[in-house]
Amino acid sequence: MTTILAFHAHPDDEVLLTGGTLARAAAEGHRVVVVTATDGHVRAVPADREAPRLAELRASAAVLGVARTVHLGYADSGHGPVLHPDPPGRTRFVRADVEEAAGRLAAVLREEAADVLLSYDANGGYGHRDHVRVHRIGRRAAELAGTPRLLEATVPRETVARLMRLARLVRLPLRFDPAALHTVYSPQAAVTHTVDIRRFARHKQAALAAHRSQLMGPGRLSPLMRALVRLPAPLFGLLLGREWYTEVSPAPASPAADGAFRTAR
């Protein structure tokens, strides 16, 4: 059994980039752990209440077969041009000290004796400042913990362009600037692992549906997420039936470290 730890910026990110991989790994008998840097809330959450999105994360994790979820304690930095002040008692993730945050993540990696860390590519996918921070802190935490393998979740830019065309054909409410393809995600040549998750498309779709606040909220991705959870499962699998990674670590030192990714190349 391999222990795979997926490090994400916000609740719901675990589904969008790695949900099928996590469900597949759990179904194959591996231990899966999800760590989120933030609770997904830009505004302050009352001290006597749990952030609602963390409850949604646990519901999503249960669908995917995740054994444990951990929140590192940071606040969402938001995606707009304005970076709000830190809420009471918490630091926005983009302002987090790199060594401190990496130390928190490394402590979980050591506790779990994780064989694989999943993080984000250098662009943080589409460039969200918290996602870029995940990339930097994930790399440092893997160094501190001596984690054997580090794979960074991404999407080939060429695939993004194809998905945009498919999305328009099925009338998904997706807005995307074609010029941005030069700066988001990663080129196909950088991808080292493609994971076929079509058998777990239903799990991924159901896990996405668990993030109700994001489906019903005013966020710019909410219309797209609502449309995705309403798609027939075969069509959802056609659109989102693969997940991609770029391996940063050297060749695995043992079969145990190879684990769930041995057939994913």
From TrEMBL:
<dbReference type="InterPro" id="IPR024078">
    <property type="entry name" value="LmbE-like_dom_sf"/>
</dbReference>
<protein>
    <submittedName>
        <fullName>PIG-L domain-containing protein</fullName>
    </submittedName>
</protein>
<dbReference type="GO" id="GO:0016137">
    <property type="term" value="P:glycoside metabolic process"/>
</dbReference>
<dbReference type="GO" id="GO:0016811">
    <property type="term" value="F:hydrolase activity, acting on carbon-nitrogen (but not peptide) bonds, in linear amides"/>
</dbReference>
<dbReference type="InterPro" id="IPR003737">
    <property type="entry name" value="GlcNAc_PI_deacetylase-related"/>
</dbReference>
<keyword id="KW-0862">Zinc</keyword>
<dbReference type="Pfam" id="PF02585">
    <property type="entry name" value="PIG-L"/>
</dbReference>
